[in-house]
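At this stage, I put together one protein's amino acid sequence and its backbone structure tokens, which the following lines show:
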Amino acid sequence: MNIIALMPATKAYEVLLRNWGGYSGATCCFWQEDSQHNFITLIPLKLEDPRNYYCCSCATFDGMDRWGADLRNGILTYHTIDNTTAYWVDLGVDYPDFVGHGYADTNEGGEGGYNRDTCFHVYGNTDQAELNEAPYEECQKIRDSK
């Protein structure tokens, strides 16, 4: 007889990202943080370099799944560590080829942060980082279509 121990799953907020393209020579990193700027993106795997899980070329999410990221139908899915902590969504764009090395970032969540599942269209270029909130159901439908 096999005995399987079940661990209670912690519910978490879901953050869906849809890539609107960007500069292939720039690196885009996506994460969530709490009100104290603590990193609260759940990284489910022990990776030698966790940045591989949440950073990629700004042009595409292609290949993120090889590092354990949930990438389905062009939608990248992240989770926060729980569903009780308000969170902000961050996008940092690093473009080392720019003269003097460049960086742009943005933070979405307003004064109180998010307390719900969200979806964002993301765009990263040599001088801009854009997170544009979209209807959660839009991204969810694309991600879950067969």
User: Anything to note?
Assistant: DSSP finds two helices and nine strands in the chain. The first strand starts at residue 14 and ends at 22.
